[in-house]
Amino acid sequence: MLRNMSIRKRLFVILSVVYIITMVGAIAGGYFLLDRDSLREAKEKTELFTTVMSANQEFMASDVRPEIMDQLPDAYFPAATVGIVMMGETAKIIQEKYPEYVFKVASPNPLNKDNLSDSFENSIISSFNTGDFDKWEGSITKGGKRFYATAVPIEARKSCIWCHDTPETANPEMVKEYGRDSGYGYEVGDVVGGRFVYVSMAAADAMTYKKLALFGGGISLLFLLAILIIDRVVISTVVKPIERIVEVAEAISRGKMDREFDVKGNDEIKLLADAFNRMKVSLAKAMDILRK
To answer: Which burial class, exposed, middle or buried, applies to 221 when counting CB atoms under 10 A from its CB (0-12, 13-18, 19+)?
Structure first.
């Protein structure tokens, strides 16, 4: 197909193919690098969020809860004595200013039904139980949205059993608030749930696509400029000299031997023009001999 095209069209097709291949490679490579960078940033955010939550829990367990239990042993104050409740309330405050963070304590047997794990969380908790890994992190899609998520297991400790043994041994106010159907039967050492942190990738993905659009637009403009420049160069240095050679050759074929193959430059087209000039001289000599 290319053989049947003019040099100008042939060059345009070749440059177009190179442009398409370059764009596909550049966009694919750019997306991969930008996505890796977005995931790295999201991982740093989840680690920071998790560190804050763990620090709050440790402070409550080591300083707040012992003091409250010592002074008010019969008080029902879960926000200061139950780590899960404290972390949930802390997360709500953080999420008011940073809604891209989602914190969830998930369990297939939760006391608070709001903490009931979904199918994805159940699979991770099951892997914690079987010992496949002691921490999980990665990119997932939930509800049509992409998140970077991390999860760590929650093991039932001795301090948990007084709430999660049986409804009869639990605080009556807690049983009244959460009911008797779920959240009981824990044994020390059991993996009863997971602590999940989700960071929305929506803003990062939007920025990635914006950067790719700018990058692709920049490459397209550069290629367009290159095609225009190359087109002008090809016309002035290749197409027009060849057209002049063709015009002179046709004139000579009609007997106008005074015409010259005059091409400026010192390239292959110049060599071709010189060869035609030598051929014209030889042809003129041959015609003179024939006339004699």
So the answer is: exposed
| pLDDT the model gives residue 93 | 84
Other Cβ atoms less than 10 A from the Cβ of 192: the count is 23
pLDDT attached to residue 123: 93
Q: Under a CB-based contact definition with an 8 Å cutoff, are residues 67 and 75 in contact?
A: no
- As a whole number of angstroms, the distance between CA 252 and CA 283 comes to 10
Note the pLDDT of residue 177.
84
Residue type, 186: Y
Cα–Cα distance, 122 to 110 (Å, whole number) = 12
DSSP 168: T
- Backbone φ, ψ for residue 185 (5° rounding): 85, 15
Tokens, residue 266? 């010192």
Burial (CB count <10 Å: 0-12, 13-18, 19+), residue 217: exposed
On whether the CB atoms of residues 101 and 49 are closer than 8 A, the answer is yes
Give the position of tokens 């079987």: 130
- Residue stretches of the chain with pLDDT short of 50: none
pLDDT of residue 2: 62
Encoded tokens for 253: 């074929």
| Amino acid 292: pLDDT | 65
How far is it, in rounded angstroms, from Cα 44 to Cα 40? 6
- Predicted pLDDT at 136: 92
Contact 141, 147 (CB under 8 A): yes
What single DSSP character describes residue 107?
A: B
- CA quadruple 64, 66, 67, 70: dihedral positive or negative? positive
Q: Environment class of residue 42 by beta-carbon count within 10 Å: exposed (0-12), middle (13-18) or buried (19+)?
A: buried
Sequential DSSP letters for 201-245: -HHHHHHHHHHHHHHHHHHHHHHHHHHHHHHHHHIIIIIHHHHHH
Contact 73, 66 (CB under 8 A): no
